[in-house]
Write a structure and sequence with these properties.
The chain is built from 18 helices and 17 strands. By secondary structure, the protein is an alpha/beta fold. The longest helix is centred in the N-terminal third of the chain and has 32 residues. It starts with 8 loop residues before the first helix and ends in a 6-residue tail after the last helix.
């Protein structure tokens, strides 16, 4: 068989371009593996090999796609790249632009994974809405200059290699080929292209969801191609809500919530709640929003490095909720859920950024005749929090970076210590007798983990990083940042205890989310096996003036329950229209979470014993026994009735939450 057609300069050029790009993407995959393999443990060699094999096929697909414009330029009649130097110059520019853009995207993806342990998907676009803050955080957290040098060197090298391939193939004088050779070349090249794009010999093409064959998120991430995955998530759409599905689960959810007058036609979820116990005076409320504090951080939970002596002391002298969960790992989503009582289940943009749902009722408005403050060390424009607060809580004053005469320490604004100093000054120097409701949002326990020189005597510790990883910390910097947050909270309470407002204030502290950190060996198996470490956060309520028994509360609850619980303790009458409930007065307890930290991504509910995950790609579901030694095992076949009960609750909460986002007007 005569295979001389393979010497076609077009084929050699195009295959050379595909091979050149493929080598680059495979090299990036190898670097990704060696950079981030320490984020997982107990992963089999078989899974790593399978993920890598799947990933290089995705890389080949991207290489083919990048070569398609060059294929077109090489096939244009008369002025193709084989005949025209100007078209070859255009080909050089096309490849250069594509390869530079791809290298930049890979670099952004690596930074995103280092930060969140997730590949870049469409939800990451929200970071571009605050570009100054995002870029400032990147500058302070990563070696930007070295990264830029790397980008320039890699891009320059691959552009030079491409130009050399062009000069040695399609730019040379053609040799004679007959029509048979040309047809054979087109067929051969076409088959190679089609197979590379299809990615497999199977009936169905290789798809992004195939990468999620393992529960371990690192394995799934290793199998994905970041550019293709981003495109796939960008083209995935979902209806905002479905009234028929909301009505289907309305009897279940309205009964669970205790709706006053259930009406399946109007989908009314209103409850008018009268105070169970009135207080002599209206108590102040201070909510301390703790950045990146998972339950496994607390010494009270057995953390061997004792990073939280202040939080441990407060938890021991108040109400300590150990089964408290946030619905989605995102600070802005936690802000939205806290304010509205609706789990922020928006699939792409977070709800605070969506102008269509900016009109939201909040139980905070039911604290009538209260002065209200929202205090943040940076800018409230971040994630459009300003609009969420000012549009829906017009009597709540936002106090932010420009209002403080304090030095800025990093991208997140002033230090948490200075933020608490400002909060104490405000609370203690008020000249009115009116009570106040305040939210104090911290940010320091977050990259770049800045600890200011003015730190009230805080001493940085240098612990063994290997031992810290066993306690769930990624680094010494992260450990000290957690210690510093605990330290400044201690400073705040030391000041508050000497002030008049202290005895008449309910202090509420909760973590906005946990982190995707190493396995914390002091926690139960489900903390790491099901990645609940990112969702299970501490909730601590301290109220010196209220006579309640200090205790640890095991009731399973979620962030949507926060304001109803605070309202109940405050003794106010209020209206509740959303998914939150007063945790101190419930029996059938569930928490809803969207778990993107374990593959496949899922939404589900859990209680103290079990956890149901329904996969968001519609490929099935799993049921887990949280008390077992192997909680990651799917045991749905063993508990069919419980699985059905959990499934109905999961679908009911999920469909209702989507509906409520658009039907919770003031």
């Amino acid at each position: 068989m005569n295979l001389s057609f393979i010497r076609s300069r077009r084929l050699r050029y195009l295959f050379g371009v595909v091979g050149l790009s493929w080598i680059l993407f495979v090299l990036f995959r190898i670097v990704f593996f060696y950079t981030f393999s320490n984020t997982t443990s107990d992963v089999s060699f078989t899974d790593i090999t399978r993920a890598f094999w799947m990933g290089v096929r995705f890389d080949l697909r991207l290489s083919i796609l990048i070569s398609l414009p060059l294929l077109i330029l090489s096939m244009i009649p008369v002025v193709n790249m084989g005949r025209s130097s100007r078209t070859r110059m255009a080909g050089k520019w096309v490849y250069g632009i594509l390869i530079v853009g791809t290298v930049i995207f890979y670099t952004v993806d690596a930074g995103h994974y280092a930060y969140l342990q997730q590949r870049v998907d469409i939800t990451a676009v929200s970071l571009l809405e605050n570009p100054a803050i995002s870029l400032y955080m990147v500058w302070e957290s990563y070696p930007v200059i070295w990264v830029l040098i790397f980008l320039v060197l890699i891009s320059w090298s691959w552009i030079k290699l491409h130009n050399r391939i062009m000069a040695n193939t399609i730019a040379k004088q053609p040799k004679y080929f007959n029509s048979t050779h040309k047809i054979a070349g087109v067929i051969f090249g076409g088959l190679i292209y089609l197979f590379s794009i299809w990615g497999t010999f199977a009936q169905y093409a290789l798809f992004w969801s195939d990468a999620f064959f393992s529960r371990d998120p690192f394995v799934s991430a290793l199998a994905l191609n970041p550019v293709l995955y981003f495109y796939d998530t960008a083209t995935f759409s979902e209806a905002d809500y479905n009234k028929d599905r909301v009505r289907k689960y309305y009897p279940l959810i309205s009964n669970w919530l205790g709706v006053d007058e259930p009406d399946i036609e109007s989908l009314d979820f209103t409850r008018h709640v009268k105070p169970g116990k009135t207080t002599d005076t209206q108590p102040n409320v201070v909510i301390i929003f703790m950045e990146s504090v998972g339950l496994n951080r607390l010494g009270l939970m057995g953390n061997p490095f004792n990073p939280t002596p202040t939080l441990d002391r407060l938890a021991s002298n108040g109400l300590f909720f150990t089964k408290f969960y946030i619905p989605w790992v995102s600070t802005s989503r936690s802000v939205f859920t806290m304010v509205t009582g609706i789990p922020d289940v928006a699939r792409t943009k977070t709800s605070s950024r969506n102008p269509l749902i900016r009109d939201q009722y909040s139980i905070i408005s039911q604290f009538k005749d209260y002065d209200k403050y929202y205090m943040i060390g940076g800018s409230a424009s971040w994630a459009n929090i300003r609009s969420l607060i000012t549009y829906n809580l017009k009597d709540m004053e936002i106090i932010e970076l420009g209002d403080f005469d304090r030095p800025r320490v990093d991208v997140w604004g002033i230090s948490d210590l200075d933020l608490f100093r400002e909060a104490h000054d405000l609370f203690s120097k008020r000249e009115t007798e009116k009570p106040f409701f305040a939210v104090v949002q911290t940010a320091g326990n977050h990259k770049p983990y800045s600890i200011p020189e003015d730190n009230a005597g805080f001493v940085i510790k240098d612990e063994d990083e290997k031992e810290l990883r066993k306690a769930g910390f990624n680094s010494v910097m992260q450990y000290n940042a957690m210690r510093f947050l605990d330290h400044v909270i201690g400073q705040f309470f030391d000041m508050a205890e000497q002030a008049d407002y202290f005895d008449n204030t309910i202090f509420v502290l909760f973590g906005d989310h946990g982190n995707a950190d190493p396995k914390a060996e002091h926690m139960t198996a489900d903390d790491y096996a099901l990645r609940l470490r990112s969702y299970n956060v501490p909730l601590i309520i301290v109220a010196p003036g209220l006579e309640f028994q200090h205790r640890q509360i095991e009731t399973v609850s979620g962030l949507a329950d926060l304001l109803p619980t605070i309202a109940g303790l405050s003794g106010i009458e209020y209206m509740n229209k959303t998914l939150g409930r007063d945790v101190l007065h419930v029996e059938d307890d569930f928490a809803f979470i969207v778990n993107k930290k374990i593959s496949p991504s899922s939404y589900g509910v859990l209680n103290k014993e079990n956890y149901l995950r329904i996969f968001r790609n519609d490929s099935g579901m799993e049921f887990h026994d949280l008390k077992s030694n192997n909680p990651a095992k799917d045991v749905k076949s063993d508990y069919p009735k419980e699985v059905e009960r959990f499934r109905e609750m999961t679908e009911g909460v999920y469909e209702t939450a989507k509906y409520m986002l658009y039907h919770n007007k003031k």
